[in-house]
Each structure stands twice: as structure tokens, then as C-alpha cells.
């Protein structure tokens, strides 16, 4: 028995001549939430569809609950909950009728009232699906994915179209499911969603995983950012080197801002050392460090550096 609930090794997938997934590897341990981030067209949905058993892996191997998800789709189905990127709800049915239809497909479904309560749709029970907002439909999709008490949950952009309140409610529900032992693979465009929910993340771009790990691991490789606004009387070439590097200069409102990214090998001490050097320089030059900021790289910095540089 593998301790990994999901294992992907060297997966490749093509549509005709176009290779949408170009050899990716990752695994998700039981009871963990793994988030796949990436630009549109990165290959996230394609990867999920292989794991969901909708199509065989063209090359490489995927395992779900120690089985081949394509060959053993029937056996796996009761153990897996799926929320597709595009929902296939029937517009004429009410919310309650939809949940009831899905409960009938499962051996041990959650009570309808409890699942509607969990996704905050109790008041919409009698409403036709057609009349729901985009965010409400997304919550109904989530209800259907969890109604069979799945061990593994696939959530493809679960909160797209939700207002902030519904999104926060959905995050809470996902956290409760993970706390209860459910393994989750999620895709999202919202970096904050991944930061809040994920044990581990991978950022995909053009069919490849460009970086993966816990959020602190992923951001620590991208350095700490130090910046201040340079007074008019200081020439740019008089600014110090920090960690051996000159600053990048950007101009806002007519005043230059100097920015350094320190990436030295010691993530805990490097910002301290660089700021100490900057302060020593400032004292020597009698310069006040206007709008001084020191911060770790954010997930957004990492994401942008991946999608903008190639
Ligand atoms: N059925 C299909 N036929 C042809 N190309 C497809 C098909 N589905 C997806 N693609 C292409 O494969 C790439 C990856 O798509 P997808 O997996 O949906 O990415 P993501 O979910 O990350 O946005 C995209 O360039 C998309 O246009
Ligand atoms: Mg997608």
C-alpha cells in the first residue's frame, strides 16, 4: 500500500498535435490538500480529468487510492467526489430535487438537509437550478461532490464566480472536510485560496510544473524584498550593494524607489544582514530611509516571475 492517495509520475497528455501536459510529477498524501495553480491553459483540468478516470494517461502513470483511475473507475467511483470546472446541472430541477437525485446514486449519502446547510443553500431548496446565481450553482456543485462522503475530492476552480462571503464559507467547509480526513486536489486562480487551504502547491505553466512545495518553501527561494524611496539629492550610483547586488530602480510620482531582492542561502538571517548594511550606509550618508519596507517574497511574486519570464 502506498501512503500517497494520489500519485502522478511523468504524466503526458496531448490533444492531436498539441501537448497539453508535458511530463509532470506530484503526489498527495492521505488527508492533505494539494493545490494546482497556473495560468489559463496550463493543463490543470486535463491533469484532473486523467486522475478522475475520464481518460487514460497517454504516457506516464497515475494512481488514485492505489488503483488505476481509468481501468478501475467503477470501483473507485463511490470513494471519490468530483466538482468539474463546468457544471452539468439540470436547469428545470429544484435544488432539493437535484440533491435527491444525487443521493440516490450513493450507498451511504449525507442527509439532504445537512449537505444543503453545509453549502448554505437551505433557503434555496425549492428554487429551480436555472434561477441560481453563478456562485450558488458552484455551491450546489460542491454539495453534489460531497454528498457521497468521498475519501478523495477533486475541486476544479471551486470558488470561481462566488462573492467574497460565499468564498470564505466554502473555504471553511473545505477546511472541515480536510480536518475530517478527506484528501483534496484543488485547482484555483486565487493565490489567497491556495495560501489558506493548501498543505502543498504546484504552479503549472504550459503543461509543466515549474515549482512545487509548501507555500513557505516556494516563496523562500524567491528571496526577501527591501525597498525605500531615494531622496532627490542622492545619485542612484551612490546607493549601496546589498547581498552583492545593486538595486532595481522604479519611479513613482517623480521619485525613484530602490528595490533589492536578497536571495542568499540563509533565509532566516539574510534580510536582517541586508537591512543592517543599508542602515549603516544611511547613517554614514545622513539619509533617512523614507518608506522603508522589508518583506518576504509573496506567492504572487513567485507566480508572476514564472508566468512573465517565459
Ligand atoms: N478537448 C480539447 N481539445 C483540444 N485542446 C484542448 C482540449 N481541452 C483542453 N485543450 C487545450 O489544452 C490546454 C490545457 O487545457 P486545460 O487542461 O483545460 O488547462 P487549465 O485547466 O490549466 O486552464 C489548453 O491549451 C487547452 O486549450
Ligand atoms: Mg481548467
Automatic annotation (TrEMBL):
Residues 6-231 form the ABC transporter domain. It is a peripheral membrane protein. GO terms for molecular function: ATP binding; ATP hydrolysis activity. Its main location: membrane. It comes from the Bacteria. One of its GO terms (biological process) is response to antibiotic. PROSITE patterns: ABC_TRANSPORTER_1, ABC_TRANSPORTER_2. Keywords: Antibiotic resistance, ATP-binding, Nucleotide-binding, Transport. Signal peptide: none annotated. Pfam families: ABC_tran. InterPro entries: AAA+_ATPase (IPR003593), ABC_transporter-like_ATP-bd (IPR003439), ABC_transporter-like_CS (IPR017871), ABC_transporter_ATP-binding (IPR050763), P-loop_NTPase (IPR027417). One of its GO terms (cellular component) is plasma membrane. The keyword ATP-binding applies. Coiled coil: none annotated. It is found in: Cell membrane. PANTHER family: ABC TRANSPORTER ATP-BINDING PROTEIN. This is ABC-2 type transport system ATP-binding protein. It comes from Actinoplanes xinjiangensis. The lineage of its organism: Bacteria, Bacillati, Actinomycetota, Actinomycetes, Micromonosporales.
